[in-house]
Amino acid sequence: MTVPADEHPRLSPHRAFTVQSRTETDMARGRCAGRVEHVVSGQAAHFHSLEELLAFIARVLTSASTNARKRLRESGS
Fold this sequence. Notes:
The chain has one helix at 50-75; strands spanning 17-21, 34-38, 44-47.
């Protein structure tokens, strides 16, 4: 069953990342290494495990969410 496009949540570029995997990455064997970059801010990091990759994404998204709420409060909205 296909969900109509208007029923999908909006995909924000503020939540977009580019992930480059090193040649030795083998997810089936638990090896994950590469570089990740947040598209909007340009923040980037190298990672050597899935946990490091996910931790970077979580930090960036948490920071972006906190900053957005702060801007809303400051603008009086």
